[in-house]
Amino acid sequence: MKQKVTKIGVLTSGGDSPGMNAAIRAVVRTGIYNGMEMYGIMRGYSGMVENDIVKLESRSVANIIQRGGTVLKTARSKEFFTPEGRQKAYNNLKKLGINGLVVIGGDGSFRGAQIFSNEFDIPVIGLPGTIDKDIAGTDFTIGFDTAVNTAVEAIDKIRDTADAHDRLFVIEVMGRDAGYIALHSGIATGAENILIPEKKTDVEQMVAGLQEKEKRKKLVNLVVVAEGDGVGGGEEVAKIIKEKLPNQEVRLCILGHIQRGGAPTCIDRVIASRMGYHAVECLMEGRYNVFVGIVNNRMCYTPIDEAVKKKQKINDEWMKIVKILSS
Ligand code: ADP
Q: From atom 19 of ligand 1, which residue's Cα is the shortest distance away?
């Protein structure tokens, strides 16, 4: 297993996130600096299975650090779920002599990486690329800061129009299983309520709170809902509020995919660069099958096996802060 890594394949997989390009650039340039051959695997695990792999030079990753999306494209590969698909992928890597892999993606991509690294003798390093920030073992994931800032900018604009008309706005942000975008963007924009998948929402209590604010003629009421909250997403929440508070003018805004795009923020570019650099260092030092995170501003390496078992936890204090600050 511990042969020297000389040829590295890099791929982006699952949901895209802003900053993936900065990570690709960092991996490729650090590898080349250390005398390695670098390969880009197109469309996540699909490219590995279908042998869609291209040689990358330093110039190949020029002028991408500022761009959202991913130049390697991303995909969800059904074939990679099967042992036959993974065997094909392995054979393709072997043919090219690729003996190290960097996977940039979310927890699903890590699960794929975990299975692959347990089956075959190619070490894998994971980089957390997801706007959801739902991976335990790191304070940052590549793309979260950009996505949450996009949401904040949009909600600020909604606040202006909500204020002009005295309307109540329900805003749905991304997060099927994780509420971090909702929690952060909601706190940053002064939302009254934030509904997230990790906490059960007491609908009666939420309505009572909004009713009380209606009586006090509070000027702006914003309810931020993660798409995967327990009540049923923004649409359902808006419907319930309309039914229970017929005097309120309720509007719904679903932010959707704008949260995935756009130029990565400085934070995302910097963490992507640091993580990409350390992914190659890990492969050189023989620190295999880990994902690279940052905790308390230090690099932190968690076995991929462990990473896929744990979820980030949301501290109860966050919800208390939301309640007190919106009163
Ligand atoms: P994300 O990385 O954004 O969470 P997904 O959950 O869609 O994205 O996973 C991306 C890809 O990772 C899947 O399409 C599949 O190819 C691979 N993958 C995920 N889970 C597994 C698994 N249990 N076994 C094999 N491959 C997997």
A: 108
Residue ending a domain, among 225, 245, 260, is 260
203 — alpha (psi -120 to 50), left (phi > 0) or beta? alpha
Annotated catalytic, 132? yes
Residues 163 and 175 both lie in one domain: yes
Give the distance (Å) from ligand 1 centre to CA of residue 111: 6
What is the rounded CA–CA span in Å between residue 157 and residue 150? 11
Tokens linked to 39: 């390969």
- Domain holding 229, by residue range, is 145-260
The number of beta carbons lying within 10 Å of the beta carbon of residue 251 is 16
Residues 6+ apart with CB under 8 A from 218: 192
Examine the domain organization and report whether 242 and 269 are in the same domain: no
* 324 found inside a domain: no
| Per-residue pLDDT tens digits for 100-127 | 999 999 999 999 999 999 999 999 999 9
CA-closest residue to ligand 1 atom 12:
109
Which residue's CA is the nearest one to ligand 1's atom 8? 14
Question: Mean pLDDT throughout 83-108?
Answer: 97
Pocket of ligand 1 (CB under 6 A): 13-15, 45, 76-77, 80-81, 105-109, 111-112, 115, 130
Share of the chain above pLDDT 90, in %: 89
> Which CATH number characterizes residue 12's domain?
3.40.50.450
For residue 79, give the ligand 1 atom closest to its CA.
16
> 265 alpha carbon to ligand 1 midpoint, in Å?
26
Q: How many domains does the chain have?
A: 2
| Residue pLDDT, tens place only, 170-212 | 999 999 999 999 999 999 999 999 999 999 999 999 999 999 8
